[in-house]
Amino acid sequence: MSLSAFDLAYDELRARWPGSTEERDVATPYGRTRVHVYGPADGSPLVLLPGGSATGLVWFANAPVLGGRYRVHAVDLLGDAGRTERRGAPLKSADDLTAWLDALLDGLGLARTHLCGHSYGAWLAVRYALHAPQRVDRLALVDPTQVFAGFRLRYLLRALPTLIRPSQARARAFLAWETADAHPDETWQRLYALATTVPGRKLIAGARPRAADLRMPVLVLLAEHSRAHHAAEVAAEARRALPRSEVTLLPGATHHSLPLTAPEQLNDRLVDFLD
């Protein structure tokens, strides 16, 4: 069977990961979950959750550094484009997502882990950390959406055409507007645009989690030029909700250009925090 354009782009970006990266398909009640695993077998585990349409491969520029210290597990999200299947138990609510992550960590043999999420993945990471705090050592949130503030209206209006009538052209135009001069990797941009057109995607939304109830150490990294929300307002709310957290602006970054542009500053912040 010939590969789809999405599969071809997926494999092209997969080739950018270190050569010793393992591909694991972990059984859960919701279907088999694809996880890209890299780093020393005895390293502290670090689970990475991507933003919507990004796939777990989006961390390709971070994996070589993070995998030098930690056992990295980059996940293709349930309900999104990628190579995670949606079979078995129905995916209906945010509670299903936390149950899925419980099963995924069990399948990976991770009783505890560091957890890092970007955008939608950060929202999910917060929900999971509140659901199972005993399993999360440290929590890193990269330009989190729907956690400390809502989306800007202009961002939603720009995203609407892609949501209503998905196409590669609309997705690329939206990315070009939001990322401005950041110039994300071309292969990843193509994969993102194709991901928006994959049939059967089902991203589960939900209410903002009570971030103030988080009890583990938290790092919040915000894109200085994010158009998804006002970075300064998000920073102020994060500091109010979590006065002991670390909140930092990443200079020059935009929402969708993370985590793959200027990975050095993101890697440095994550390593300092996780260490």
The total strand number stands at 8
Major beta sheet summary:
8 strands, mixed
The low-confidence runs, each spanning 5 or more residues with pLDDT under 50, are none
Q: pLDDT average, as an integer?
A: 96
Order of helices and strands: HEEEHEHEHEHHHEHEH
Molecular structure report:
It is a single chain. The protein is built from nine helices and eight strands. Helix 3 crosses helix 4. The mean pLDDT is 96. Strands 1-2-4-3-5-6-7-8 form an eight-stranded mixed beta sheet, with helices on both faces. It is of the alpha/beta class and 275 residues long. The longest helix is centred in the middle third of the chain and has 15 residues, at 94-108.
Short description, anyone?
The protein is α/β, with parallel strands linked by helices and 275 residues long. It is built from 9 helices and 8 strands.
Q: How are the elements arranged and paired?
A:
Elements (H helix, E strand, L loop, with lengths): L4 H10 L7 E7 L2 E8 L5 E6 L13 H4 L3 E6 L18 H15 L4 E6 L1 H12 L4 E7 L10 H12 L3 H12 L6 H10 L22 E6 L7 H11 L4 E5 L12 H12 L1
Task: Label this structure with key terms.
single chain, 275 residues, alpha/beta, 8-stranded mixed sheet, 36% helix
